[in-house]
Specification:
With 545 residues, the protein is of the alpha+beta class. Helix content is 53%, strand content 13%. The protein is globular. The protein binds zinc ion (ZN). The site of zinc ion has 4 residues, from helix 17.
């Protein structure tokens, strides 16, 4: 490349990478026992092994390519290294998986490396339909890859334990080492059963063990999400989250959970639509992330996850939600604070509060569990999800956000939470700034569309006011009744299963109005997300060069 072109290409890659702001993640493990501290170091090493397996899952050329670009210490080489690290391969997750390096397919292969590169959907379907039932199940299963027989060119099934044998044996050994070091029985049980699953591909028992784990070290490690199989959505990608439990926040969630029925009983809807007996809700654990690896450290970082995906486990034990508090804090510092400086008036900026940002997210998750779910329409038993169809996701996200505000206000008013003007100002100003963060996900995304509904509704009610300097402020006399009314409107649409009303609300309010678009345009240079730097992991388990 000519030097002008080289410079141009270097700047282009640097701009792409700048959308992810490097952010150190620190977690204090001072309270851990000696055994747990040693176990933690083993689990961090296991997480790093998972990183290598994930690179192989995405593309067979990934490891070779990584070595190649790591040898290039020019400015261009460094820009490539950084973008490769963030993307876990030569394709950009924020740009429709388009290649940013030369000499690779223009777009990430739809089937990643889960299937032969030259296999088509019809070929797979035809072949799978000829297999005996159990084998077909394996072919479409989470934990196998499809390969081509070298001689006969026939498709064949290879279990993960064989496809990634070297890495999985190493990871299993590290989990067993950690199991021998911890004194916590529930953690030990998960680690031993998961180590066995790495070698025999049967994840059921260890998924159950993961649901029951209650320990100072909170680990999620294995093949889980299927998004990287864009061909069929069958194959699970390896990821790891090595975390420490946040006892205080986990207790707070339990405390809120115990009061959910009381909130349900006070929802601002026709009492006939209230549920007199809420079922068991999804358990929520709050943790701080020491290391994320593989699919879990790839493009935009997860702020929370809900696992497992295996229906057999969900039927037996439900699923568990894990909230990554320090990751959310990093996003708050790196993305929300800069946004607030541009969208809130100067006197409101001091109200921006991570505590209320995070408490609102917790309340949002719990709010999904209250309000109408199983409903009757014209005497017919059905569900909100079925009746609202394509309008459901956006309306349900709006419902969770606004009902969360209603819930926290209810807790303020009833003395469950320390209220008063100061807390209320922090909650609503933080929510207002956060609305603009969410709108940047793109209006077709369910959370963003749901947020547009709220921002426009509350603005029409005079609860959010746009000032002449292009900032937005909260009217504290109007916000509380407006929150109650929007909660009532959305919950009533859900209770009626009223598809037409849902669509009316989304098409009228689920839009970016010109004045909001102007404000959003002023946020363009603020990072989209963080690139976590795992400083505590590197201290606990130094890397060997
Ligand atoms: Zn939600």
């Amino acid at each position: 490349m000519a030097s002008g072109l080289l410079l141009h290409e270097t700047r282009r890659l640097e701009r792409m990478a700048a959308r992810f702001a490097p952010t150190p993640l620190r977690v204090d493990g001072g309270h851990l026992s000696e055994g747990d501290r040693k176990a933690l170091a083993k689990l961090i090493e296991a997480g790093r092994v998972i990183d290598g397996i994930f690179l192989e899952q995405i593309w067979s050329g990934n490891q070779r390519l990584r070595h190649e670009i790591e040898a290039d210490n020019s400015d261009l080489g460094k820009a490539r290294q950084r973008l490769f690290r963030v993307s876990k391969g030569p394709w950009s997750t924020l740009d429709g998986q388009a290649a940013f390096l030369p000499g690779v397919p223009e777009r990430r292969p739809l089937g990643s490396d889960f299937y032969p590169a030259d296999m088509t959907r019809p070929e797979f379907e035809h072949w799978a339909s000829t297999l005996p039932e159990l084998e077909e199940e394996l072919a479409r299963g989470f934990f196998t890859v499809i390969r081509r027989d070298a001689e006969a060119r026939e498709l064949k099934i290879v279990p993960y334990s064989a496809a990634y044998e070297v890495g999985l044996r190493r990871a299993a050994a590290l989990l067993r080492d950690a199991a021998a070091l911890t004194a916590n029985a529930s953690l030990r049980h998960f680690l031993l059963t998961r180590a066995a699953a790495f070698l025999d591909d049967d994840y059921f028992a260890s998924d159950l063990a993961w649901m029951e784990m209650d320990a100072p070290i909170d680990i999620t490690i294995g093949p889980y999400e299927t998004y990287n199989d864009e061909l069929f959505g069958y194959k699970a990608s390896f990821e790891a989250y090595v975390c420490l439990t946040d006892e205080e926040e986990t207790e707070k969630v339990k405390d809120f959970s115990r009061r959910l029925q009381e909130v349900e009983d006070h929802l601002p809807i026709d009492p006939a639509y209230r549920n007199p007996r809420l079922g068991a809700s999804t358990p929520i654990r709050v943790v701080n992330e020491v290391l994320a690896a593989g699919d879990g450290n790839h493009g935009v970082q997860a702020a929370a996850f809900n696992l497992p995906n295996d229906e057999r486990v969900i039927q037996r034990k439900g699923s568990k939600k894990v909230m990554l508090k320090n990751v959310q804090h990093a996003k708050f510092d790196t993305v929300l604070i800069p946004i607030s400086k541009r969208v809130l008036p100067a006197e409101a900026r001091a109200d921006l509060s991570f505590h209320w940002f995070f408490t609102h997210i917790l309340a949002h998750e719990l709010s999904h569990g209250i309000g109408p779910h199983e409903i009757r329409v014209n005497g017919r038993k059905t569900s909100v999800r079925l009746e609202l169809k394509d309008a459901y996701s956006a309306l349900e996200e709006a419902k969770a956000d606004i009902t969360a505000l209603f819930m926290l206000q209810y807790f303020f008013d009833n003395g469950t939470l320390p209220g008063g003007k100061a807390s209320e100002k922090k909650l609503y100003n933080t929510f207002l700034a956060s609305a603009f963060r969410t709108l940047r996900f793109g209006i077709e995304e369910a959370h963003a569309k749901g947020m547009a509904v709220q921002l426009n509704y509350l603005s029409d009610r005079g609860a959010f006011v746009r000032r002449t300097d292009d900032t937005f402020e909260v009217n504290f006399d109007k916000i509380k009744p407006a929150v109650t009314d929007l909660t009532r409107d959305i919950l009533t649409i859900e209770a009626h299963g009223d598809y037409a009303a849902a669509n009316r609300m989304l098409s009228e309010l689920g839009v970016i109005r010109p004045e909001v678009a102007q404000t959003l345009a002023r946020l363009d240079d603020i990072p989209v997300d963080i690139e976590p730097l795992f400083v505590s992991a590197d201290e606990a388990a130094p890397r060997h060069p």
